[in-house]
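Budget justification aside, the reviewers requested a transparent look at the raw inputs and outputs of the sequence design task funded under Objective 1. We therefore reproduce one unedited record. The lines immediately below are the structure tokens for a 334-residue chain.
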């Protein structure tokens, strides 16, 4: 069995070496542990330092493509190299890499498909706004996904090979929320374990502006809801509008029964408009659900193609990808 630890990195020359050196090279029951750094177009010495620190594979995007793209490509590259389990971690030394065996054990035991290392936010030093934003996101997502206790923003996760093959990231901002929606839809078993996280002094690479990050993360969550739970989203909104439409309608009926309905036709019209729009949203939800079924069929086909390609020639998908995108390269590791 092979474990590959993936590290998306962007301008992390100050911390990438300590992260790589902390990763245990012997994890039971794996025969080998490899480290794959996916450099997202860094402008500093991240690539050079990662090679010197002992990374087995260092792959570089030609330009900065963002965290979601880099994470998705890191999974593909790990699968192409025959990974049975993949652990994804951050390059900023935020997580304790010695806990990697704790992340992988539930997968090895067959008790999980994805294991999330959930930070103990109450003990973690971080800007007040970031901490409260994480708490709000956790509160909402835990109820939407019915996964209690999970830290939805944590990138410290372990994936079984089948889970990694099943996930497709469409977001352009971050992968953490969307992959959880996809995992629940595909009936993958998600387990969370509490882990201490370290304070990071430097500004977040992902959160350059808190309001902008909240807006982009909120849009990502909204897109995920519409993509993975379309009927729930549209029918809930439609039902709300129908209920709201009953209020002016009831008002009109009250005055009509009192013999004074002629002067309150606006209430009847408003109630009917809200009820009609709400009913149409329910129909839209049914159509969106049918489209979602088609997406699931396409993803099943893509899953089978991934399984076939990685089982036939483990190195071929990565080589083909690099050949088709010459600006993206694998750096030779001495």
């Amino acid at each position: 069995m092979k474990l590959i630890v993936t590290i998306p990195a962007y301008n992390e020359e100050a911390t990438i070496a300590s992260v790589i050196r902390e990763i245990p090279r012997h994890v039971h029951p794996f025969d080998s542990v490899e480290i794959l750094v996916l450099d997202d177009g860094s402008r500093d010495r991240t690539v050079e330092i990662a090679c010197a620190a002992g990374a087995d594979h260092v792959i570089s995007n030609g330009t900065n493509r963002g965290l979601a793209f880099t994470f998705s490509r890191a999974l593909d590259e790990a699968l192409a190299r025959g990974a049975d389990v993949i652990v994804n971690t951050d390059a900023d030394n935020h997580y304790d890499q010695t806990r990697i065996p704790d992340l992988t054990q539930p997968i090895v035991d067959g008790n999980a498909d994805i294991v999330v290392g959930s930070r103990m936010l109450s003990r973690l030093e971080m800007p007040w706004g970031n901490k409260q934003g994480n708490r709000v996101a956790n509160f909402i997502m835990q109820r939407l996904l019915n996964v209690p206790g999970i830290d939805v923003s944590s990138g410290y996760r372990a994936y079984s090979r089948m889970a990694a093959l099943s996930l497709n990231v469409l977001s352009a901002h971050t992968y953490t929320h969307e992959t959880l929606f996809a995992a629940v839809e595909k009936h993958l078993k998600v387990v969370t374990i509490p882990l201490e996280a370290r304070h990071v002094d430097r500004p977040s690479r992902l959160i350059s502006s808190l309001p902008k990050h909240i807006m982009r993360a909120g849009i990502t969550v909204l897109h995920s809801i519409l993509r993975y739970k379309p009927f729930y989203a549209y029918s809930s909104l439609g039902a709300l509008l129908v209920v709201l439409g009953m209020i002016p309608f009831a008002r009109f009926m009250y005055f009509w029964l009192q013999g004074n309905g002629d002067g309150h036709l606006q209430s009847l019209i408003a109630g009917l408009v809200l009820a009609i729009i709400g009913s149409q949203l329910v129909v839209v939800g049914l159509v969106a659900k049918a489209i979602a079924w088609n997406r699931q069929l396409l993803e099943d086909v893509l899953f089978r193609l991934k399984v076939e390609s990685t089982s036939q020639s483990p190195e071929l998908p990565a080589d083909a990808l690099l050949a088709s995108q010459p600006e993206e390269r694998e750096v030779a590791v001495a």
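The longest strand covers residues 2-9. Residues 313-328 have pLDDT under 50 and may be disordered. Computational costs for records of this kind are itemized in the attached budget.
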